[in-house]
Amino acid sequence: MTAGLGGVRGYGTRRSWLDRTAVLRRFDWTLIGAVFVLAFVGALLVRSATYDGLIEQGKDPEGYFKRQLLNLPIGFALGCMVALLDYRLLRAYAPILYGVASVGLVAVLSPLGETINGSHSWIVLGGGFQVQPSEFAKVGLVVLLAMILQEPRDGEVGPGVRDILLALVLAGIPAALIMLQPDLGTTLVFIAVLLGMLAVSGVRKRWLFGLVGGGLAAAFSVFFFGLLKPYQVARFTAFIDPSADPRGAGYNAQQARIAVGSGGFSGKGLFNGEQTAGHFVPEQQTDFIFTVAGEELGFLGSVVIVGLLGVVLWRGLRIAVQAADMFGTLVAAGVVCWLGFQTFENVGMTLGIMPITGLPLPFVSYGGSATFANLIALGLLQAVHLRCRPVD
Amino acid sequence: MNPRTHTRLVILHVLVITLMLVLVGRLWNLQVVNGEHYRQIASENRVRDIVVPAVRGQILDVYGRPLVHNRVALVVSVDRTTLMRQRDRGRAVLTRLAAVLGTTRTALEQKTRLCGPTVSRPCWPGSPFQPIPVEDKTDPKAALQIMERREDFPGVSAQLQSVRDYPRTEGAVAAQTLGYLQPLTQEELDRRTGLKVTGFSGVDLVGRDGLEAAYDADLRGRSGVRKVKVDAQGRVTGIAVEEPSVPGSHLVTSIDAKVQAAVERAIAGAVAEARKQGKKGSSAAGVVLDVQTGRVVALASLPTYDPAVWIGGISQQEYVRLLGKSQGEPLISRAIAGQFAPGSTFKISSLAAAVADGYPLNGIYPCPGSYSVGGRAFTNFRGVGHGMINLHKALVVSCDTIFYKFAYEQWLRDGGNNPGKAPKDPMVRTARKFGFGDQTGIDLPGESPGRIPDRAWKQAYWEATRKADCKAAKTGYPEIARTDPKRNDYMKKLAHENCVEGFKWHAAESVNLSVGQGNVLVTPLQLARAYAAVANGGKLVTPRLGLAVIRPDGTVVRRIEPPKPRKLDVDPKVLAYMRNALAKVPSEGTAGGAFGEFDLKKVAVAGKTGTAEVWGKDDTAWFASYAPADKPRFAIVAMVTEAGTGGAISAPAVRQIYEAIYGMKDGKPALPGGRLPDKLPKVRPDGTVDLSAAP
Description:
Chain B: Belongs to the transpeptidase family. The structure holds 2 protein chains of 2 kinds. By secondary structure, chain A is mainly alpha-helical. Chain A is built from 15 helices and 3 strands. A 3-stranded antiparallel β-sheet of chain A has the order 1-2-3, with helices on one face. The longest helix of chain A has 34 residues, at 289-322. Chain A is globular and about 65 Å long. Chain A starts with a helix and ends in a 6-residue tail after the last helix. By secondary structure, chain B is of the alpha+beta class. Chain B folds into 3 domains: 48-253, Penicillin-binding protein 2a (Domain 2) (Alpha-Beta Complex); 257-340 and 522-674, DD-peptidase/beta-lactamase superfamily (Beta-lactamase); 455-504, no CATH class. In chain B, the strands form 8 sheets. In chain B, strands 2, 3, 4, 5, 10, 18 and 19 form a 7-stranded mixed β-sheet that branches. A 5-stranded antiparallel β-sheet of chain B has the order 12-11-23-22-21, with helices on both faces. In chain B, strand 8 (224-230) and strand 9 form a beta hairpin. The longest helix of chain B has 31 residues, at 3-33. Chain B is elongated, with a radius of gyration of 33 Å.
């Protein structure tokens, strides 16, 4: 708060310059550094995953690599803009962001939408550009939920029943739209974010357990009444026994494990992955990017990547703890739940300990929308961090 | 910050750390603990072995002329793995391919499906990863069409491959002797240990019969392996390792293509003659042996077939149609695997047995038209008697009754129906000395032992059949009784006899054995060897077809020497006496008609006719011989079943073979000098064979 006032008071003076460098200095550089390394390594892995395939198609072998290198600065710029906003202004923007994202999700279901890899989750803008609104909906959801859940009612420690129900409805609408695409992974991210933010906001335990129990019951009934697409069911059963159907849904899981396992302790070296070059793992530059890391960088490299993602989550949690107010805490916690769940699910499915759903690995996978959304999330964390309580 | 939020954030911390640790633990498990395992799986699904079959060695005749060689064929193969990855499991590809090859999609689908317990030929018995050859007589235009439109034919390739070819050099086929190749099956691989193959692939062909099987290890060479890198679509992206194949060695045999062709023509002519006389002439065989060494100069069998039917696989229907019972089972070589009653040709053994048992060699014996044994009359051929004759004449005119007498008297001396503890059975013992009743040991698979019936055999036979006989003795034969009660009574009596004393060695059996009738069975090869032993003065040779194994570059890997001959335990004087008699058979004996116009002064032929009675069928015609009579070189046997007399049917066939060997009709002897060449044919370093020595 003092920083903001100081800025206004010292406008146009030498102090204002100092002030701005002070802002820069107060960024969480550890967090930025981790993200930066992840993004750069990710781009190299994207290059490795796509190089041979593009040659075969007679295209620029570095096409994907170059596009990702273009995505990153745009994403960082977006992140910076968000970080430098007074994050409390976001409360004002949150409904707009949420609304735009929801409209995007509806548009996806309209004839404007495009199906890529079995998911009808894209809007093609033309000129080779396409947007995946569900990625941006994650940002919208985190900010909106933080806004709703920030202020406890009188005499309450956490949000009241009305707030909880409102949160459920607001999370439920985009989640339902995304489920219609169908994109199970992103829906699960929404659920993780909702549960995590409710927990951090101080909702009573019985509410949390009730929600989890109700959710599980709903999931079971969905499964039993056949509301899932056959391929989704197949992916889940394949997760339980991947060798049951090596050419079917279990193929991905099995090939992913083979690629990662064959990397061994030190890996085969960047760009030297033979499984990668042979395209044994599908969607390798996006959802299965971690197989490239596993094969080419080995256990050492994989642990570094998991470690860097761990650093991101750790810094995020630290920011949540030190946030100036409940809104900041909730935003940071929401981002951590989002990225944390996505990391665990993505790496977990690659390693065969989680079912396969289409989710990119934060900061590492190829993809414009995902990269932008992730870096905006990074911006949110920085925004909260810039206005945190002084460390005691 | 409220305390509840704080607690929840701490829990979130713990959760994040736990999940990250779970991931690291799993990574450790996959990459470090099981890394080697996954590396192996990875290389298995990334690198695929393609077996490069070795060019098989040729089978050459004694002068180096090819009996089997290889031709280069344009083979179209289909990669099943690629096919199965197509959205329609390859239907469209196979439809297009069928149109180009002029066949049907169904036919191609059958050829490319995998054999299994419920899937029979046509199907693919090999590895599912090996390209499956579907057409090996591809027109180059069709192949070009396929290779030019590769995108229309994913998984289809056209390549040059070497396949077996049968040139019929000088007209010789020798189908059963050469044998055939079939893809190696998994069971065979498991069974045949030490077989040098690079792993089971389905393109490893293996000799299944004849010389191809006997000398498989020499002929096959060593398959090479091309390890190709493939991507997830099974497309070959490069060659990882290539271990070239080592071509197989050539097998030089003692077969002479011209003599072989002559034998094939001669027995075919004999069959035709038998059929002209209204007989069935169901099968025939011809054998030419070098009496001194045991080298086999020719080995032929009828019915025969075109060995080219095996190339590129054969379907169950084709097999039945071309090689089944209706065609007389042409795969079976009658020369080595057929077992037939030898008739009078067997008398060389019986004569030796009688003399060894004490009958004077120069004695005079009665040869009545029939001889009574236990109240049953055993007759000469057509019941003709010859008065008092010596053993020489007994062979020349083929008197049976003399041998009946010998056999009956010997049987009586052994104790008759109540034999002593150690019956001498001289006829049986001598027959075994001549090599009957046991395999000759020729270098071919599937040889039959023949049969010399004796008391032990009778006992075993009785034990095996007693139950049925005893039952029939009580119930009779109802089906026969309905139409022929008299015959039923007789059969019932016979069954009773067999039931009670079927183990007993009867006089009739001894008598039948002495003239090569009854239960005596020999193979044509056994008979040729027995006559060779008479001719060479008592050496029982082991027949050999293989002469040498020569590498394609000309180095002789090894010469194949026949085992040392066994000594025939028969008095040389008896052999000389028999040779004298046999030499008269073509001039004044039972083969006189056949050799009427043959210049016996130029090439003296000695031999013996045989006309074996077969119950319910026409007689088996035999002629067993050797020549030249004074300095024997070749033993020749011809046999035709359901044909007539040996003198009329088989002796002329043998005569034709001698004519070809010595060039008596056209002045162009098949074997100049009347013998096999001493030198091996020369294989030049470039792989071609020097044929300049061939006549």
